[in-house]
Amino acid sequence: MAVRILALVGDAYGARGGIARYNRDLFDALAATGVEILVLPRLAATDGAAPPAGVRQQPAKLGRLGFSLAALWAAWRFRPVDIVFCGHAYMAPLAALLARLLGARYWLQAHGAEVWRDRRTVVRRAIEAADQVTAVSRGTRKHLLDWVDLSPERVRVLPNTVDERFAPGPASPALRERLKLGPGPILLAVGRLSAGERYKGHELVFAALPGLRARFPGLVYAIAGEGDDRARLEARASEQAGDASAVRFMGYVPDDDLPDLYRLADLFVMPSSEEGFGIVYLEAAACGLRVIGGAGGGSADAIPIGSVGMIIDPTDQAGLIEAVARMLGQGRVDPAAIEPYRRSHFAETVRLLLARLLAQPRRMRERA
Question: 70 lies in which domain range?
């Protein structure tokens, strides 16, 4: 019988966002090894994207009680379960309980802010119960090990991957004209505009725009993404940028259109201070863009300094202006710099992690 994995996640197939994409990449790689995966998402999918063969995704169950009951029922029907995978620390107590009830191995994934901020004792204990923890970056791994009592060998780094769609190519003059971005240079940021993610650094860029436009009169800061903080950010841009034409909010951009958007830009700028990793940095670099990120979190793993870009103090406005001027003068990135993050390398690491976990003995199943 194939290895069976019960996966508790926030979202995966059919959903937007970096964590959903990470989960899809991970489950695709696991499915390629012949395992069977039942995915239980807490959030509803926004499109009809279908999982690959070997992966089934249940409808979302909103609310803690509803999700917990649905997970218990699904776990009972999906038996025997070899691995319980937890894609978010919020669900770690439930995942730990299911692993005990099923006698399954327990794999926890850590991304960033969810393990930096949620310091409840029940969550810490549930994380410590994991047989294997994977962290999206060295920064996230360090934060986790500073907080929980885990031996370092149980916590492995499994960074984001970037697929082959993101590659250098010619910029689209038609897209530039449609977006009415002018002569540029064009600074780009891509990401959710959420009140819970104000650490991404948009406002630092707004404040630096008058100084940047003094050097580069046609410079535009283009922001792709939607969220509940967009209206506030638009107001802040009007207050800080000095010229309404200096900032363009483009709203949600479908994944299929992102490569063309990256190729159109001259520099990717998102001085985030708490990014767990930052898949958008990799996507931009894969398309040839140099990138500027912020110190703090795991951004350094996604931005090889020198070959791809720079890490700056996310509170240093003068430093940001100098970094933008310097990066604009360095031309495009050699895509070989991000080769270690391509899917073939990711899939091989996933295969090794799976084999390592399966080599561990199953838990003794708890009696009801």
Answer: 4-161+343-358
